Amino acid sequence: MRDDKHTGFAILASILAAGISSAAFAQSAADLVNDNKNPKNVLTYGMGYNAQRYSTLKQVNRDTVKDLVPAWAYSMTDQTGLEAQPLVHDGIIYITNHNRTAAVDGVTGKEIWRVVHEYPPEVLRVVCCGIVNRGAAIYNGKIIRTTLDNTTVALDAKTGKEVWKTKADVDFNKGYSMTVAPLVANGVVVVGVAGAEFGIRGFLDGYDAETGAKLWRKHTIPAKGEKGSETWEGDSAETGGGSTWVTGSYDPELDLVFWGTGNPAPWNPRGRRGDNLHTNSILAFKPKTGDVVWASQTDPFDPFDHDGVNALVQADLTINGQVKKVVMQAHRDGYLYVLERATGAFLNVNKFVDMNWSSGWDAKSNRPILTEVSFKAIAGEKVEVWPSLSGGTNWHPMSYSPVENLLYINTFNLGMNYYAPPPEKAVAGQRTLHVELTPIKPEFQGHLKAVDPLTGKAKWEIPFKVANTAGTMNTAGGLVFTGQLTGEFIAVNSSDGKILWKFQTPSGIISQPVTWEKDGVQYVTVGSGIGGVYAMRTAAPDVAGVPTGSTLWTFKLHGK
Predict the structure, then answer these.
(1) Is 499 helix (H, G, I), strand (E, B) or coil?
(2) What is the dihedral angle through the alpha carbons of 498, 503, 505, 507, rounded to the nearest 10 degrees?
(3) Which of 92, 246, 331, 373 has its CA 20 to 30 A from that of 262?
(4) CATH 3.90.180.10 given to domain 2-557
(5) Angstrom distance (rounded) from CA 207 to CA 190
(6) pLDDT in tens, 294-328
(7) Per-domain residue ranges for the chain?
(8) Which residue of the set 205, 299, 302, 305 is catalytic?
(9) Is 542 among the residues known to form the active site?
(10) DSSP E strands: which ranges in 371-498?
């Protein structure tokens, strides 16, 4: 590990060095490394490689936010969900949905270019959880994104003209699809894949950012005979899931990418006995090669679809008097995991929502302590489980304030009645759930919580009748921004949870807000457009009446 660390510092130094031979590479890579320090732009998924979604901008603050007004709105001319995080470079916004990429003038809202991506309509048969895309990457004058037919495309940022296109060598008929926002790390485009519900064998791909040439593939599920294959019963690993559909984060000093892997397939555990490596795990790997440095599993043999792909947020935390470089994940299983970035060691594990499938974390074995609920479920008895398959939180990213040392998380308050009948054989390309579920929905189905990362306890929380499925973003102005499925875009006091401002957008918000600056003016941008898995599955009347239609909104202070 010492050699890896020294190599990482050498990589960071070379990226930032003024005398590097390729000026274009140095500028672009350095901009990505410093994204969280330059509030004028938003160049990475997570508003920085550390994925904290924190901005130092404070023109819009607790006192001035009351004067926040729309500057413009831009139509994506589409009725599907808008989950993507916008990117911003020099006042130009880049936004994606499932089949469109657009460049928009961030000050005026006027379209600069728009590209429509064609793919076979049959692809939609194997899209599990909404016809969506989560955003793009920017690198050296290129906008890079994925499409549902497992293609990664690079477009010229100025014109939208295609620079390169690489199709992953997998068949969408077998359940594979891509909705993920790429991550560019050390010149490599890293992309993941969705499809655990259709019995895929999950993987990550690495492509050369300049040419699109495939550099490596790393499967999350070991092949027969490989290390870890003994954790799968029979041939169950061949359709074992372990999808990688939410973007990870990157530590350029360690030269490590952190990425979460999803649930094992099928959901019914009775035909895949074992720990089912490397599902529901956090992987740390080298972006140039895909070589895994460490892998830490959170939920061995998961029967409840507690998919482990949630955002991986980096920070420096003081633990037992020592400053630790950590990566944090608020997991669907209801636990908040804090791991050491260099080694993957579990430093803290605490629940952040109510649960009954586990009674705590065993620090000696690094495993959850299962309750009678879990044992009965695995044995094929009907049980009531908290949290439900929707999780303590879902895919939508949390944010972290390095000033207040709090995580801002949209959490779920949902349970389910669960039954796993005798197992059926999973077939690739066909839904492999094989369980019976009915939801349990209290009056308040979710909360926005300010959570202490070392205890899991909330400093404050706001209840919502319909759970929020939007990301959060926080600022030095003392604000947390997020959106509601019923369309309200809100700003909350980051210290006490008081809602200070709200604006009704035309549709539900399931996207990820960002803030940026141009010519001394701070702007806040968010997408509106209901869709995604929770909107598809909820029967809440408030959601059923929300109109569809995707629009991108940008706000600024009145008079600015």
Answers:
(1) strand
(2) 30
(3) 373
(4) no
(5) 7
(6) 999 999 999 999 999 999 999 999 999 999 999 99
(7) 2-557
(8) 305
(9) no
(10) 383-385, 399-401, 406-412, 415-419, 436-440, 446-451, 458-464, 473-475, 479-483, 488-493
Rounded Cα gap, residues 52 and 472, in angstroms: 10
The residues near 216 (Cβ < 8 Å, ≥ 6 apart) are: 205, 206, 289, 290
Cβ neighbours of residue 98 closer than 8 Å, sequence gap 6 or more: 78, 80, 131, 132, 133, 147, 148, 179
Mention every residue, 6+ apart, whose C-beta is less than 8 A from residue 104.
74, 92, 93, 94, 95, 110, 111, 112, 552
How is residue 408 written in tokens? 């801002």
pLDDT, average across residues 188-214: 97
Give the C-alpha separation, 420 to 382, whole Å: 8
Residue with the two structure tokens 């070379």: 14
**pLDDT tens digits, 113-169:** 999 999 999 999 889 888 999 999 999 999 999 999 999 999 999 999 999 999 999
pTM for this predicted structure = 0.95
Edge-to-edge order in the sheet of strand 514-518: 68-75, 551-557, 521-528, 514-518
Q: Which two tokens stand for residue 66?
A: 């009351």
CB contact burial 386-413 (16+ within 10 A = b; e otherwise): bbbbbbbbbbbbbbbbbebebbbbbbbb
CA distance 531 to 128: 12
